[in-house]
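This part of the workshop introduces the protein records we will be handling. A record pairs a protein's sequence with a compact description of its fold. Comparing a sequence with its tokens is the quickest way to learn the format. The record below serves as our worked example for the rest of this section:
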Amino acid sequence: MWGQVTARDYHQLRVEELFPLVLECYQRLTAAHDIIVIEGAGSPAEINLKAHDIVNMRMAAAADAACLLVGDIDRGGVFASLLGTMALLDHRERQRVRGFVINKFRGDPDLLTSGVATIERRLRRPCLGVIPHLPAIGLDEEDSVALEDRRTPARAWRGVHATDPSDSARPLRVGVISALVIAGAGHDRRHRLRVRCQLSAAAAPGDRADVRTCARPIDHRSWRGCPRLPIL
């Protein structure tokens, strides 16, 4: 663990104390690999946080990396997001951006043609691809914001075999206790793929009513003391 600080202290200290550690890790990776793909976080144009940001353009500059701007069309306003982001980058940062991609598109890609052409002209950068929405891709979300749409009992246990506890076809129901802080929140997805069970977030006492057993999230420091359970 690096330390325990307030949000304000973290934003002030992460450049001075954390970024040298990030660069050490990056240098080790470059010594062992020919190609490194660096994923940013959030937006490189969050100007209120930019002075202390270590995960976007600061890292790109340190690695002398070419950048690809990815816009999430599923959230809406993707063209304004792409154009606004480039406008808020400084000249040297814009020079690093080689093109853009539109991610999580649903529907007929021909409907994007005119919009893509306009943004290519305005940004003077090519669109390098339109990626379709892939709901079952199995990748973890970027951060815990995604837990706001987590699998509550009402969402997780709808449908077939939903009400009869004696139904032998109904999977084991496990309630995962919602903690105030949690790391690795996407691990439950992998467990759902390996074990025939249904997981849901148990945030309130009433959520336990239809749960066969409960599980408490743990972090890597607690894991060493836990017994290994067989995967059925």
About this structure: The chain has eight helices and six strands. The first strand starts at residue 67 and ends at 72. Residues 190-195, 227-232 have pLDDT under 50 and may be disordered. The two ends are 33 Å apart (CA to CA).
